[in-house]
Amino acid sequence: MTSRSKDRDDGDRSSRKARGASVETRRPKTRVLVLVPVLKRSGRGDRTAAALIASHTPESRLAEAVGLAKAIDLDIIDSTIVPMSEPRPSTLLGSGKVEELGQRVHDLEIDLVIVDHALTPVQQRNLEKAWNTKVVDRTGLILEIFGARARTREGVLQVELAHLSYQKGRLVRAWTHLERQRGGGGFLGGPGEAQIELDRRMLQDRIDAIKRELADVVKTRDLHRKGRRKVPYPIVAVVGYTNAGKSTLFNKITGAGVVAMDQVFATLDPTMREVKLPSARRIILSDTVGFISDLPTMLVAAFRATLEEVVEADLILHVRDIAHEETDAQARDVEQVLGDLGIDTLPVDSHILEVWNKIDLLSHDRRAELQHETQRDDGQPVLVSAATGEGIAPLLDAIDKRLGAADEIIDVIVPGSEGQLLNWLHETCEVLTREVRKDGSLELRLRLPSEKKLRVLAQLRKAGLQA
């Protein structure tokens, strides 16, 4: 081949490669059908489905399922509520409904069917055969979203652990070669080991390896937590239903650039920032993963290392989308997850402060009604709009008051020459009153945060002053 021919050939290959890359970038989105199975009656059948019906309307479940699908950029071609008299062990839905939906899958050229319900491996396999397309249940979809959202090494490990735990019980569906027997190699001989057992063992080995890595993560977090306790700054954890506005609120309070989108599970990896409250108390504010109804148990377990920040928090801010039509049901879902973590949510005491977010979306009458309701005593929720900043100052005061229940009020006289000490006291404590005496000294009344008491008293003694 001549040099010119070789150059032309290389050029053709490069051109074809470029065209291939262009086609790759223009690959059409996955065409999706979203199904929400709903029991016609809740007296019999699947208790999980019945519980969901009791707390969430079918329409809101459908809207949430579509939102979950859109979170990973799927093309929602159609979505529908599917009534069922009772769950079928083989296909969940009745044979007539399976056939009807199969025709819709064919007519709409659907690539993926999302069933907003837990499917057994057998049900998933049978539906895929009947519809000749891939089927994913609610747990599988949430795992996919978590996989797309995880950014840190810890987040990736936690998602992988949950995904492997999910797949381990579905090997019967995921593999096509499980009936084969693998003969013993070398001198071992023997009939061999079923392929499914080898695959399960490989999965278990990887699960064990991830758990060991996450154990190291837990140790590292423990060290960081102990370091913070030495400062010591109170930990305030922000929790809530996914898309309730937690990250927007976190950004508004801290000025941080945490991802805040109108999207479920936009935040997976915990973010912490230091915040100074009106009393000069400094806190660590922690943003956490959003909760959701019927959150897979394996995900709660996998993210336990992350959620330990919530367990260890001095105060929990439960952010609610108060403008959502099912805000009460969402609140119960969050409380259930907190309960799974061992956090006592009833009665709501000083450990949990409800933050009713998105008041900017409420009507004037509804806002007035809620404001009247929350002015009864200090234990009531705080109304805010993280989007506009309304209510942030009262929220910081409420946090300060909750954390300051054990604060101490002290009086101290500081010479006018102690300018550096005066500045330090203003930075460290809340100065309630300040009076200049005839000799030029200042008489201060200070609110002393309980966690700073020893440090402040030591500083005063060092300056030869008494409180």
Throw out a few tags for this protein:
Rossmann fold; alpha/beta; 3 domains; 46% helix; 18% strand; single chain; Alpha-Beta Plaits; 6-stranded mixed beta sheet; 467 residues
Please characterize this protein's 3D structure.
The structure is a single chain. The protein is α/β, with parallel strands linked by helices. It has three domains: 31-146, Rossmann fold, CATH 3.40.50; 233-404, Rossmann fold, CATH 3.40.50.300; 407-462, Alpha-Beta Plaits (2-Layer Sandwich), CATH 3.30.70. It is built from 17 helices and 15 strands. It has helices at 3-25, 47-55, 58-70, 95-107, 121-131, 138-149, 153-168, 171-174, 195-230, 246-254, 297-302, 304-311, 327-340, 364-373, 392-403, 419-428, 453-462, and strands at 31-39, 75-84, 112-115, 134-137, 181-182, 193-194, 235-240, 271-276, 282-287, 315-321, 352-357, 382-383, 408-414, 430-436, 442-448. It has a six-stranded mixed sheet with strand order 8-9-7-10-11-12, with helices on both faces. β11 (352-357), α14 (364-373) and β12 form a beta-alpha-beta unit. α6 packs antiparallel against α7 and α7 (153-168) runs antiparallel to α9 (195-230). The longest helix has 36 residues, at 195-230. The chain starts with a helix and ends in a 5-residue tail after the last helix. The model is unreliable at 13-25, 42-54 and 173-193 (pLDDT under 50).
Short recap of the structure:
By secondary structure, the chain is α/β, with parallel strands linked by helices.
